[in-house]
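Let's sit down with a protein and look at its sequence and fold side by side. We need material for that, and I hope you will provide a protein of your own picking. Once you have written the record down, we can walk along the chain together.

***
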Amino acid sequence: MKIGILYIGIGRYICFWKDFYDSCEKFLIPEAEKHYYIFTDNENSIESSERIHIFHQDDMGWPCNSLLRFKMFRRIKDFVNNNDYLFFFNSNAKILFPISTYDLLPGEDEDYSAMCIDESPNCSGFERRPVSACYVKDGETPYYFSGALNGGKTEPFIQLIEACDDIVDTELRNGIMPIWHDESVLNRFLIGKRVKVMYRDMGKPANWREPKNAKIILRRKEDILGRNWLRNYKGREHTNTWLRKLLRKLHIID
């Protein structure tokens, strides 16, 4: 079994890589052959190998580094299609206990796996603007999925990547920024799909007490990157620069 792991470590976020990689190798379906596909502007900080594949990605700032992840992944769709499964993990994820195929992989009658963080048809996190391509009507789905962990069988997941990238382009053409960026796009796509629903034991914020014995934690970015740095990073001018570049590419602005 081959599992491809998509990982974004741009700028300071690359500091999370080593602990993530070590925990993956130790606990994530140990019998599987794991390949890592890393998007980073810090290529010299990671040693490539037969299973560690590095792709340069400029720092586009916030929210482009998150919103445009599907575009990054689409670049290498022909490079990753020899895996049986593909999964995206947030850079700050760390695995603490063994994860089995049952924990992570979709079943025979499922195509995708995603972590649910709210089970309510009226979750306030959904994109509620009808003009948005990510619009979710009240009661349309009971599951609100996190962008921190999702994946699936390779062919369906590549379809997810392509469809979500197209949704992002549509939003930007219409002058709309999805309320929760890539997460809003993901939630729109997964409605009506065959999804293995995972819960917070597969991605608990590190400072939460529950659930106890979570298998994966999401380390606090503020503690590691610095609260002031994060605040400043999300307001830097290069975010607007990259958005303008993309809008020109989509022929939205001159």
